[in-house]
Amino acid sequence: MIGDLSSFTPSSFDLREIVFVAQMPHVRERIQLEYSPWFQFLLGLLQVEVEYSDVFHYVDGALLELEVRMGYRTNADAADDWHNLIATNITRTLECTISDEKVKMIVLSEFNFNSLNEHLIKTSLFKAH
């Protein structure tokens, strides 16, 4: 696990070496939280913050390409028995502003579910805004 990306030295130029994982809902006070079928909306955001460096030069309209996979499991499944819901590649254009202090990036919308009911999942996954 990488605690701080600033100390990460990749072994190749393949940036897929870095994997971000999120489990929702998470465990709180040793209790695995659950989503209710009545839960109506889930929104995922990826906020990119780039520290300014004289070594790396800003490229206007730089593209961020992500390989995204989303899985699920039910109460009847084992703790490590995940099912693939969707796998897709998405591309977002980074919109950056550079000040003398630092580089700021916009927040990128990753996904949203309009309904989390297991029988009525309607996705508007990965639409560019």
UniProtKB/TrEMBL annotation:
<dbReference type="GO" id="GO:0012505">
    <property type="term" value="C:endomembrane system"/>
</dbReference>
<feature type="domain" description="Wntless GOLD">
    <location>
        <begin position="2"/>
        <end position="103"/>
    </location>
</feature>
<dbReference type="Pfam" id="PF21883">
    <property type="entry name" value="WLS_GOLD"/>
</dbReference>
<dbReference type="GO" id="GO:0016055">
    <property type="term" value="P:Wnt signaling pathway"/>
</dbReference>
<dbReference type="GO" id="GO:0006886">
    <property type="term" value="P:intracellular protein transport"/>
</dbReference>
<dbReference type="GO" id="GO:0061355">
    <property type="term" value="P:Wnt protein secretion"/>
</dbReference>
<dbReference type="InterPro" id="IPR053936">
    <property type="entry name" value="WLS_GOLD"/>
</dbReference>
<dbReference type="GO" id="GO:0031090">
    <property type="term" value="C:organelle membrane"/>
</dbReference>
<dbReference type="GO" id="GO:0017147">
    <property type="term" value="F:Wnt-protein binding"/>
</dbReference>
<dbReference type="InterPro" id="IPR009551">
    <property type="entry name" value="Wntless"/>
</dbReference>
<protein>
    <recommendedName>
        <fullName>Wntless GOLD domain-containing protein</fullName>
    </recommendedName>
</protein>
